[in-house]
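Troubleshooting: if your tokenizer reports a length mismatch, compare against these two reference records.
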Amino acid sequence: MPRRQKQLTMASSSSLFLLAGLLALASWQATAYDPSPLQDFCIADMKSPVRVNGFACKDPMTATPDDFFNPAMLDQARDTKASKVRSNVTNINVMNFPGLNTLGISLARIDYGPLGVNTPHIHPRATELLTVLEGTLYLGFVTSNPNRLFSKIVKKGDVFVFPKAMIHFQMNLAHDKPAAALSSLSSQNPGVISIANAVFGSKPPISDDVLATAFQVEKDLIHWLQSQFWENNNY
């Protein structure tokens, strides 16, 4: 093959490889979050037997203003005294607000009693933007390996973002006053995995051999941790 033709062939191959890489990246970005709606709205039909990624749509001709409304009363504080971690999370997502289906957004109000904690957890499908409504919080998130912590003390009116699927937490620093926050999440159904609950409260339990090795502790401690009541503060 002539040298010039060989160079052109190599350049063409490199261009195709670069194009394929760019298309793969674009495809990943397109599928990384909730899919964009292909119609004005898609109110979830919670009774439909059809199983899709999300929920099937009810007939749009039967939609009413109430489908786009939820009397959530998010201006009202929730009870935190019944919680062992002294916090209460009120979720507004597609499961209790079908009008959010395909819209890629949801809300949560978090109430904290004195020294209350929203324990370390992740949202596997959403970035979270938190606004402090009342009080002073210590909060932060941990990155993937090498597990760098980004933490800050925030006050009323401050805003903090937790990137998608990062372990994060909040704590009310006041010993004598409640606190509250409102979070926006970039998914109609963000999901939540509480770290302690998942590791020590899974059903069936994770092998004590695995956990003892992972945490470098004796099995008796693992058994004690697994015997605790791992509370869900999401209501």
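Reference record two:
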Amino acid sequence: MPEITDIVQDPIPSDVATSDNVGGSSTGSTTVVATAVDVAVDEAGVAEKWISLSFTWSGKSFSLDIAESDRVFDLKAVLFSMTNVPPDRQKVLGLVKGKLPPEDERIGDLKLIGGKKFTLVGTPQGHEIKDPNQMEFLSDVVNDLDVDFSANPAAAEAYKNDQRNVRKVREATAKVKINLIHPLREGKRLLVLDIDYTILDTKPLTSGALPPSECARPRLHEFLTAVYPHYDICIWSQTSWIWVETKLVELGMLGGSQNYQISFVLDKGPMFTVFSKREGKPYSHHVKALQIIWNHFPQFSAKNTIHVDDLGRNFALNPKQGLKISAFKDAHTPRAMGDRELDDLAKYLLHIATVDDMETLNHKDWKRIVRALPPH
């Protein structure tokens, strides 16, 4: 079986979080002192303020730094990684007046004062999870609460340039190691393709209700064969690695004798939580930031990359590169067996394959454009 991707979960740098020891008692309380505010300049020359905290938990000493652009969510994640107290069990007392603000609240807006103490109360779970990223369990079976980030370009641009999001992209780039399954080809575009409910009905596959070939979206291999002469193919799934590898092998996309090659694969590891608003209410979700790929492979950029997914919220940081496809579900029903979405998608991708700057395109209209194309 080919080696696909090695997601490297580096230990948290010493300037981000450190601890002398991690407690494992059944119940603990933590006293935290805000001791300093440091200003660091990132690679783009933007100053970012960091707050140093020191605390004790179950009689042990810890220290951590958190950025003002971080959210309450991030603070909870760091506390979880250091004490094993899950966010839903954390009770933070004395940090702010009254109840701790919602998870999307910026740390800078808490107006923390150096030397202020607060207490964390909560019961830890086992030691099987330590990295903050590992607390972000991603669902691969629902298409609820989706949002169209291409509808408001100004808001999308602000979202993309949010200081926290920029830093999260940089951190994810440094952590992920991408192993090429097949060499990248000079002059090709990049197709980033989702798996679950984009090219596969996941539910009957994972439950064993249907064989893999009957869970695949109709004409999957014909689609990939058609676009491969013009596009290098990346698979990016928001599920854990073991499921990604299993799905691709069972679908015959890896290790088979197809007339196309998958260049590289990403799982949920490089994804991170972002915060916005939906219908005026706070909304958090995970995102696939294409800049992570572009940082590793600079021959690709906003001008020659397209991202196909059934969840528009995955395009949050790159709305112009996103093409939303209808979700493929209920495999083995007459309607699903008659699905020809991938045939239409192949026509569109071939139609735009020679466009110099794909960022000038509006993929939201892709189906209308396909209908207007002359028949072959």
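Descriptive notes for reference record two:
- Residues 223 and 343 are 6 Å apart (CA to CA).
- The radius of gyration is 23 Å.
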